[in-house]
Task: inverse folding
C-alpha cells in the first residue's frame, strides 16, 4: 500500500531550524557522542550536551539516583568535564553525527555563564541552552531561575557573548514560570525550554535522614508529564517566544501533546536513560503520526490546541 507523501518534520524555533523536533534532554545522554549507532542519534533534530561549566565539576556524592513510581529522583550536581575538554575530546565526534548541537551551559555566578559561552564560541555549536534551573547545586542554577532579575542578568551576560540562538531552561519550582520566562525573553533569549526537574524528597527510614546529601533532588520521568505539559501550556498562552517542551515524554503521542500545547520541539530525558533508542523512536513515530492524521508538516500542529470546553466558565 502507498504510504502517502513523506511528512515534513522540519521545525523552526526562532532563529534555529531543525530537521525534526526531537532532541535528547540535557544530562540524560552523556555528551551526545556515545554509541551513535545504538542510539540512532543521527535521527534526532538536535543533540543537547550535558550541562557544561567553564571548569570541570565532580558532581555530588552518592547516592545520585533513586527510582520512584513512574519516575526517578536525581542529584547528579552538574558533574561534567568542563568546556576545554568538551571542545577537544567530544566536539569533533559530535559534529560528525549530523544533528544540530545545542550546548547546555551552567555556572555558579553570572560571569561564569558568560565565560563558558565565550569559550564555547570557538567550538561552533549551533545554539545554547542556558541552565538556570538545576535544583542539585549549592550556588547558581536554580538560584537564578527563581528570580526574574537574576534570570535576566544571566541572559544579558550570555547574550553579550554570542549571536547564536539562545534558549533558557526554566525550572518548574517557581510560583510563576511565566514571569521568569518573560524576564529571559526581555533580556535577549530567543526561546525557552520547559521544564527541568521538579523538586522531590526521598527518606531513608533507617537513618531517618533524607536519602540524598542535599536533601531534595530532581524528579523526572512520566510522573511529571502532566505537570510539565501544564507549564508549557501556560508559557505558550502568555509569551511569544518559541518553546522546547520536556518532562516525561516517552512516545510520539506524548510529544504530540506538548506540540499541540505550544512546544515547537521536544526533549526526551529519563525515557532515553531507560531505552537509549527512545528519542530516535519518538522522531520516527512523529512521522507515522503525521501520516496517520493527515498532517503534511509537523509545524502545523504547534500551538493548535483549542480552548478547553468550558474555558470561560
Ligand atoms: C540523571 C539526570 C541528569 C540531568 N542532568 C541535567 C543537566 O545536566 N542539565 C539540565 O539542564 N537538565 C538535566 N536534567 C533534567 C532533564 O534534562 C529534563 O529537563 C528533566 O529530566 C525532565 O525530562 P524527563 O522527564 O524526560 O527526564 C537531568 C535529568 C536527569 C534524570
Result:
Amino acid at each position: 500500500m502507498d504510504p502517502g507523501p513523506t511528512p515534513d518534520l522540519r521545525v523552526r524555533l526562532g532563529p534555529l531550524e531543525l530537521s525534526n523536533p526531537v532532541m535528547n534532554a540535557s544530562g540524560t545522554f552523556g555528551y551526545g557522542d556515545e554509541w551513535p549507532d545504538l542510539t540512532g542519534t543521527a535521527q534526532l533534530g538536535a543533540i543537547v550536551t550535558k550541562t557544561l561549566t567553564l571548569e570541570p565539576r565532580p558532581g555530588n556524592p552518592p547516592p545520585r539516583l533513586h527510582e520512584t513510581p513512574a519516575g526517578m529522583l536525581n542529584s547528579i550536581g552538574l558533574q561534567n568535564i568542563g568546556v576545554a575538554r568538551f571542545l577537544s575530546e567530544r566536539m569533533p565526534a559530535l559534529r560528525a553525527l549530523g544533528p544540530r548541537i545545542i550546548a547546555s551551559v551552567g555556572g555558579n555566578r553570572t560571569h561564569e555563564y558568560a565565560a563558558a559561552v565565550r569559550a564555547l564560541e570557538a567550538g561552533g555549536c549551533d545554539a545554547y541552552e542556558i541552565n538556570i534551573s538545576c535544583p542539585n547545586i549549592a550556588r547558581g542554577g536554580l538560584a537564578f531561575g527563581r528570580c526574574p532579575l537574576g534570570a535576566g542578568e544571566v541572559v544579558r551576560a550570555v547574550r553579550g557573548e554570542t549571536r547564536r540562538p539562545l534558549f533558557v531552561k526554566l525550572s518548574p519550582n517557581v510560583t510563576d514560570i511565566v514571569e521568569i520566562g518573560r524576564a529571559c525573553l526581555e533580556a535577549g533569549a530567543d526561546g525557552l525550554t520547559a521544564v527541568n526537574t521538579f523538586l522531590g524528597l526521598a527518606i531513608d527510614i533507617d537513618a531517618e535522614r533524607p536519602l540524598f546529601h542535599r536533601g531534595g533532588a530532581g524528579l523526572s520521568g512520566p510522573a511529571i508529564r502532566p505537570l510539565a505539559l501544564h507549564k508549557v501550556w501556560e508559557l505558550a498562552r502568555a509569551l511569544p517566544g518559541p518553546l522546547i517542551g520536556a518532562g516525561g515524554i516517552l512516545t510520539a503521542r506524548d510529544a504530540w501533546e506538548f506540540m499541540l500545547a505550544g512546544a515547537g520541539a521536544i526533549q526526551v530525558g529519563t525515557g532515553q536513560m531507560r531505552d537509549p533508542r527512545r528519542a530516535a523512536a519518538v522522531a520516527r513515530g512523529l512521522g507515522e503520526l503525521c501520516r496517520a492524521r493527515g498532517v503534511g508538516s509537523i509545524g502545523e500542529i504547534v500551538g493548535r490546541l483549542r480552548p478547553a470546553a468550558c474555558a470561560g466558565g
